[in-house]
Design goal:
Elements: E1 4-7, H1 13-20, E2 24-27, H2 33-39, E3 45-48, H3 56-60, E4 67-70, H4 80-85, E5 89-92, H5 98-114, H6 116-124, E6 142-146, H7 150-161, E7 165-169, H8 175-180, E8 184-185, H9 188-194, E9 197-200, H10 214-219, E10 224-228, H11 237-245, E11 249-254, E12 273-275, H12 284-302, E13 310-311
Parallel strand pairs: 1-2, 1-3, 3-4, 4-5, 6-7, 6-9, 7-8, 9-10, 10-11, 11-12
Antiparallel strand pairs: 5-13
Helix pairs in contact: 1-12, 5-7
Length: 315
């Protein structure tokens, strides 16, 4: 009997087509948690992105499940420990969106530096306020990075092209490894203190939840700017707003939020904050890569082969 696969959050056509070569595929990117739990007993595999919350209760509703595939890198929406306890393999596609997220990070840096969204909005209101939008250059500034994995390394490479110096902290890398990736190693507090721009490239774990709060913002330079296209919850959003309202921080650009979508009024208004709706990986290229990669991983598990990107914990 062919395996049955449920895709609950949408997948690129190329990924769906590959899954369909090996099994019966159902897809509904608007299915409710209740409806998914009701349908899941008939399925061998579940493929999600970030919308579906794969908690212990949902896992219990799928006694046939052999594999959960996350089309993307972050697995904070999956209870990995509960899945493993039930003998379910969890896989992801960590390489697919790296370039897209790195490019979006640089786009946010540039938008912060030149107040591009605010200038665009004013011009479209029929106003010509050239003198109101005096920006700053990236050249000669220090970019601080917390996390220097695949995406952080790509950001470092691109920031160098703008003439930025990069200071990075990553507890999983040695100082020599950080230098090999083009950044100057520094401890956590030193990265905060040196940065004209601070960009976060961290997973959301127990250790990183709320990692950037009032004490950390106080360590940053007056007038520094923050970019986060990593995971919502790493930044204490109330503390960030206080640092922006006080004028200590000059601006922030956020692509991810603790609650998605964020509650109305919870994000400081422009021009101090640029906000995008978790679109770092939303490029045609990244979605195609993620769809194909996660389809390959899921099919490998269903066929009894070892996957390339098995997830062993939420850490």
């Amino acid at each position: 009997m062919s395996p049955r696969i449920f895709v609950s959050d949408g997948l690129a056509p190329e990924g769906l087509a590959l899954l369909q070569t090996a099994g019966e595929v159902s897809a509904d990117n608007k299915i409710t948690a209740e409806a998914l739990a009701a349908a899941l007993p008939e399925y061998d595999a579940l493929v999600v992105r970030s919308r579906t919350k794969v908690n212990a209760g949902l896992l219990a509703a799928g006694p046939r499940l052999k594999v959960i595939g996350r089309a993307g890198v972050g697995v904070d929406n999956i209870d990995v420990a509960a899945a493993i306890a039930r003998g379910i393999v969890v896989v992801n596609s960590p390489m697919a969106a790296s370039v897209s997220v790195a490019e979006h990070t640089l786009g946010l840096l540039l938008a912060l530096a030149r107040q591009t969204p605010a200038a665009d909005a004013v011009l479209k209101q029929g106003k010509w306020e050239k003198s109101s939008f005096v920006g700053v250059e990236l050249a000669g500034k220090t970019l601080g990075l917390l996390g220097l994995g695949r995406i952080g390394a790509l950001v470092t490479n691109r920031a160098a092209a703008f003439g930025m110096a990069v200071s990075a902290y990553d507890p999983n890398l040695t100082p020599d490894q950080i230098r090999e990736r083009g950044a100057e190693p520094a401890d956590f507090n030193s990265v905060l203190a040196r940065a004209d721009y601070l960009s976060l490239h961290l997973p959301l774990t127990r250790e990183t939840s709320g990692l950037l709060g009032a004490p950390q913002f106080a360590l940053m330079k007056p007038g520094a700017r923050l970019v986060c296209a990593a995971r919502g919850g790493v930044v204490d959003e109330a503390a960030l707003r206080a640092a922006l309202d006080s004028g200590h921080l000059a601006g922030a650009a956020l692509d991810v939020f603790a609650q998605e979508p964020p509650a109305p009024g919870s994000i400081a208004p422009p021009p101090k904050v640029i906000a995008t709706p978790h679109i770092g990986a939303q490029t045609h290229e990244a979605q195609n890569r993620a769809g194909l990669a996660i389809a390959e991983e899921v099919l490998a598990v269903l066929a009894g082969r070892a996957p390339r990107w098995r997830v062993l914990s939420n850490e």
